[in-house]
Design brief:
With 333 residues, the chain is of the alpha/beta class. Strand 6, helix 6 and strand 7 form a beta-alpha-beta unit. 39% of the residues are buried.
């Protein structure tokens, strides 16, 4: 009886200890590299984590912000992170075409957010007034360069394109009257728009060719996708839910303003004017044929990817499986 009593005591003590131990977490850690911190179009991981949306899907994010798209891509390839957000789609296609095991698991941004503006004192009031003027872009080969080319073609503008560097440098060039029309990408300049210091004359999304193409994507590597497919599927579901929340709940504007260090008015304007809901949909790669044509023209690709290659590269978890249960990538020509 003595031994039985002792074992009972030990058992009771063990149960008591278990009761006071913290419950083991079932959450999966997903390491995510985001190209740009503070931009509305790349804020979903951080905002969704703050709002508890990823937690609801059993995921905890470890977020880091590398030095640009190329660095993010390399971290994904090395396996040091699970997902890269905001990587250029043409760069991803180029790396894949060279044999790298990259996979696209979602779109990050479709359409262009660049815009062109003038000072409040400028005599330029309409697109017609730009004829014979100078229009800024960042550097040769940049997105702002190709956007400016398409912009002038679309509206038949006989204007001279001038490289002025990044958005802050461009603003100084405009202030010094070295260029007539400046370029910027939000959130840069939105404060000045709100204050009436500058006036927007056109958005890149005014050009159908720019509006109808996916620009940035979310990527992983093939090994991670194979080993953690269920986790990545949940990541994409949580990302979708976060984007919906960002466009439906006023609290998202407040949280973003705090994240980016901008006013709520600026945050609201970014959401309403520069990044419409459809631009951030992760579910569809839009304008795939045009993207590949551009990639060949710009020498990202030697030749267009085949249907088989695209099926391997683009593996977006579907919102609803089709009748066969297929998880075919969602793409739009």
């Amino acid at each position: 009886m003595k031994y039985i009593t002792n074992w009972r005591c030990i058992g009771a003590t063990g149960l008591a200890l278990v009761a006071f131990m913290p419950a083991a977490s079932a959450d999966e850690i997903v390491k995510v590299a985001v190209v740009q911190r503070g931009a509305w179009d790349s804020a979903a991981p951080e905002l969704g984590q703050q709002a508890g949306i990823f937690k609801k899907h059993g995921i905890v994010l470890e977020l880091l912000y590398p030095q640009g798209s190329s660095d993010t891509e390399q971290r994904v390839l090395s396996g040091s992170v699970d997902v890269g957000v905001g990587v250029g789609i043409m760069a991803t296609m180029r790396t894949y075409s060279r044999g790298a095991p990259l996979r696209i698991i979602g779109a990050n941004r479709t359409g262009a957010a660049n815009y062109w503006y003038v000072l409040k004192s400028s005599p330029i009031l309409t697109l017609k007034d730009i004829a014979g003027k100078t229009i800024a872009y960042a550097t040769n080969g940049s997105s702002s360069h190709y956007d400016a080319i398409d912009f002038t073609k679309q509206f038949g503008l006989k204007a001279r394109l001038v490289s002025t560097g990044e958005a802050a440098a461009t603003f100084q060039q405009l202030m010094s009257s070295n260029v007539d029309v400046g370029w910027a990408a939000p959130p840069f300049g939105v404060d000045e728009i709100e204050q009436g210091k500058i006036r927007v004359v056109a958005h890149a999304n005014d050009v159908p060719a720019l509006r109808g193409k996916t620009v940035n994507v979310m990527i992983t590597n093939a090994d991670t996708l194979q080993k953690r497919k269920d986790v990545l599927d949940r990541f994409v579901r949580a990302y979708r839910e976060t984007v919906e929340w960002m466009y439906s709940d006023p609290a998202s504007v407040k949280r973003y303003a705090e994240l980016a260090g901008v006013s709520e008015g600026v945050a609201q304007r970014l959401r309403a004017e520069f990044f419409t809901r459809d631009m951030l949909s992760p579910d569809t790669i839009v304008g795939l044929k045009s993207i590949m044509k551009d990639a060949v023209t710009l020498r990202y690709l030697q030749t267009k990817l085949s249907r088989k290659q695209l099926g391997e590269l683009i593996q977006i978890p579907p919102v609803v499986a089709d009748r066969t249960g297929s998880i075919a990538p969602l793409v739009s020509p």
